[in-house]
Amino acid sequence: MNILIVDDHPLFRHALIQAVRYSLPQAQIHETAAVNEFYERLENGPEPDLVLLDLNLPGASGFSALVHVRAQYPSLPIIVVSAHEETSIIQRAIAHGAMGYIPKSAHPSHIGEAIRQVLEGEIWLPPNLPANVSFDPRAADETALAERIQSLTPQQFRVLMMVAEGLLNKQIAYELDVSEATIKAHVTAIFRKLGVQNRTQAVLAINALNIDEKKI
Fold it and tell me: Is the distance from CB of 91 to CB of 136 less than 8 angstroms?
């Protein structure tokens, strides 16, 4: 079993690795700390059997990485592992395609339980979650935005995240080692796919997928 952990906190990655090894000693565990590293591993290496994904990552905006990766790799099971324990956040994660949600305060035994259940095709949720919680899709505006995010190519997604960070086209071109003309073409395509007309509108759109922007 090949498990990929995506979290930018080294201490928590280490703790999560130990918890996974305790429950699944035969698992092959790999780790990345940012969205760009995550995509590079998915694009250049064998697809993992399971991803444990933090929501707060460099190069991502809230649920955006989850939304986009689920579209690019629809058969890849993803369990969100997050410090956020609000029911509304768990609802949104499941609505956007996560197969499980493990709060970072969870007992280590829950990690192995969650992994086994998700690999069997089931959804795993924290045991203390209210029994009457609904996991219907989100409101139409966020669902429509998620669909637009899903239509972006991986490179367009990277560019959009850099735009959201405030980088100029020439700075993005330097970071991605491509021409500024290429970035301009990507930005034009991103605006078209998101249904926006400028960088400010694009940033406002992506911010709708932030953790604290909207509540159920």
Answer: no
Q: What is the identity of the amino acid at 85?
A: E
Q: Does domain 140-207 have CATH number 1.10.260.40?
A: no
Report the distance separating Cα 75 and Cα 213, nearest Å: 29
Please state, in angstroms and rounded to a whole number, the distance separating the CA atoms of residues 48 and 185. 32
Q: What is the pLDDT along the chain (216 residues), one digit of tens a residue?
A: 899 999 999 999 998 999 899 888 999 999 999 888 898 888 888 889 999 999 888 777 788 889 889 888 989 999 999 988 888 889 889 888 899 999 988 888 888 899 999 999 999 998 887 766 665 555 445 677 888 888 899 899 989 989 988 899 999 999 999 999 999 999 999 999 998 999 999 988 888 788 764 433
Question: Residue 43: what residue type?
Answer: E
- Domain locations along the chain: 2-119, 140-207
Can you tell me the distance from the alpha carbon of 196 to that of 104, in angstroms, rounded to the nearest whole number?
36
CB 54 within 8 A of CB 8: yes
Q: How many residues does the chain have?
A: 216
Q: Which fold has domain 2-119?
A: Rossmann fold (3.40.50)
CB count within 10 Å of CB 212 equals: 10
List Cβ neighbours of 164 (8 Å cut-off, separation of 6 or more): 61, 202, 203, 206, 207
